Amino acid sequence: MTGENGNSSNNINRDNKTRSDNTTGRATAGTSREGDQILLEPTRSGEMTLRWQGRLLHSSVAPRREARRLAERILQDAPDALVILGIGLGYHLEELRLQAPSLPVALVEPSQELLDLAISHTGQTWWDRYGPDLVTTPDALEDITLHLNRWGAYNPALVVLQGVARHCPREEQHLKETLLRYRKRREVNRNTLRRFGRLWVRNTLRNLACSAGAGGTWPGIDGLAGIASGVPAIVCGAGPSLDTILSDLAVLQEQCLIIAVDTALKVLQREGIHPHCAVVADPQYWNTRHLDNLPSRERTLVVAEPATHPRVFRLWDGPGALAASLFPLGAFIDHRLGRTRKLGAGGSVATSAWDLARFMGAREIYLAGIDLGFPGSRTHCRGSFFEERLILRGSRLEPAEQGLYRYLHGAQAAPVPAARGGTIPSDARMEVYRNWFSEQNQRYPEITTRLLTPESSAIEGTGLACPTELAAGLSLTLPPEKAPLWKDPARALRTLPPSRNLPRREAPREILRNLEESLTRIHRIAREGEALCRTLKGLEELDPGELARLDEVDQLLASCSDRELAGFLAARGLEEAAARTPSSPREAVAQAEEIYQAIAGACAYHQDLLARYSPREHPSSDSASG
User: Fold this and answer.
1) Are strands 277-280 and 105-108 parallel, antiparallel or unpaired?
2) What is the DSSP letter of 117?
3) How far apart are alpha carbons 256 and 251 in whole angstroms?
């Protein structure tokens, strides 16, 4: 039972109207519902409290005052979203809405009967005004992470009624763990954005502006949807455990869809294993080196992302396809090029490879060399570029083993459970990836994910499979007249009707021109806001009418449909400015000036890149890119 905004309350009331009416008649002051042990009782303040299975969920004296203090305590930590376990009679929800009306609220309700009672007791008008944006149950916590991501929350607060916590300790603990994993992932994503945000933007614009880049010759991945339905898939990473399974993969490649991450592609090809797909998503130069000197290119379809380093598109002369971007600039371009299909991202190219297998229709997905740890205190399998680079850089005074030790020590590796028992070293970053895989197991129960390499770290909900038994148990019957599409995914893209494969789209030059226009408008408004703030700071007295002009600037920015283009790189400055609550009009003006400066700076960076990469002097580039 989930929903957003007012729709959730309306749906709940429609679904439970009869039961809510009955509840109103039975659960009145001083009367109980014996089957559920729910009792409404009056308090000294005249307000009602609720007793559930012998325990009070609210104060027996002044439940509204108790809720007000709870809300004040929760909001002291400046959360950007609220997750409530147990609604009770809604006092705490109402107070939180009154004190922080802009914060999104998710309600996790362990008891349907208590929810029915709350709806009937508070009434539709109250629910429309104070009701949560999402209602779910402890068995569907994936809804929480999905909506927190949608709301852009970094610091959600957990609000738990004491009475509910006593009744539902397991649900409370599970919810705490879910929010902890969410915060860790968001922190990793935030740090990644700060580290690579400008590089993503630069690569995307370079790829679009270049006639041989991502904006032109490669189609989207739409044609790959479902072509491997009923076929097991193996996702191969370059972890140390890949060494132990190469001989099995050589047999399984005829019966399974093989998807490699970029780091594993060369290792697999050297052993005569030609993955059907390879996923490349890293924006850095060094990751393009995995594609150097490959024995074969024509038998593997490379699936990339528009922000991938431009060298990939210059180097790769085999078949390729592009997933839609996860970033605002890429989304701006994708919309105009007709690319719609995205791949899920959990922070690692391995997570994107798993989601590609799911997208292609596999319902059994096996992981090989996806160690998410350092089995044997190694980082990569033999023959991978990173291992060879480490060895080549070694010297008599600083051997490769010393570099490996520094890497593991810098990663602050700690033991985690291994799939076969015991432990292996791993780090906090890989814990985020394990949690992502675990959440996919819950989100897609129809898909079974198993590890083929017992040396890998254990993943919750992911079993262990024997590659020999897998090969013996597979009996795929292939059409005699031709190979199935999953064995040649590039053919699936070639045979897709043009209306689906390459929808009507704008030329790269037109996209760059539209992008320049959008950025120019946002930049102009932000500069006007800065100038207004400087004027206001010079006034001895701040007139409310003058301050209202800032609202007009904000409304102009909000009206820009492409404002996220600048907000993406300005996120850090916006967060730092918004984290402080101004205590005076002058502080509010100073805060607004910081926000406008961050937006203007992000626009200027985009515009500088456009001036550098736009092919203004080559009018024929549109046709070459198309």
Assistant:
1) unpaired
2) H
3) 9
C-alpha R_g of the chain: 28
- The CA distance from 458 to 444, in Å, is 19
The Cβ of residue 271 has, within 10 Å, a number of other Cβ atoms equal to 14
Pairing of strands 277-280, 301-304: parallel
How would you classify the pairing of strands 414-417 and 423-426? antiparallel
4-9 long-range CB contacts below 8 Å, 24 or more apart?
A: 4/133, 4/134, 4/147, 5/133, 6/128, 6/131, 8/131, 8/132, 8/133, 8/134, 8/135, 9/119, 9/124, 9/127, 9/128, 9/131, 9/135
Q: Which contiguous run of DSSP H or E holds residue 365?
A: strand 364-368
Torsion region of 347: left, alpha or beta (phi above 0 gives left; psi -120 to 50 gives alpha): left
Scanning the structure block, which residue is given the tokens 């339905």? Answer: 229
C-beta of residue 419 within 8 angstroms of C-beta of residue 464: yes
Q: Which residue has the tokens 């200027």?
A: 604
Identify the CA nearest to 120 among candidates 83, 96, 90, 86: 90
Give pLDDT tens digits for 478-491: 444 455 788 888 88
Which residues have a Cβ under 8 Å from the Cβ of 471 and sit 6 or more positions away?
248, 251, 252, 255
Q: Which two tokens stand for residue 27?
A: 């659960």
Residue 91: name the closest of 72, 64, 59, 73 by CA.
64
CA pair distance 405, 428, nearest whole angstrom: 17
pLDDT of residue 423 exceeding 60 = yes
The set of residues, in sequence order, having a beta carbon less than 8 Å from that of 259 and lying 6+ positions away, is 233, 234, 235, 236, 275, 276, 277, 278, 279, 353, 356, 357
- Residue 302 confidence (pLDDT): 94
pTM over the 0.85 mark: no
**Mean pLDDT, residues 362-384 taken together:** 89
Contact predicate 355/324, CB 8 Å: no
Environment class of residue 444 by beta-carbon count within 10 Å: exposed (0-12), middle (13-18) or buried (19+)?
Answer: middle
Q: Hey, what are 139's tokens?
A: 């068995």
What's the token pair of residue 463? 């079993």
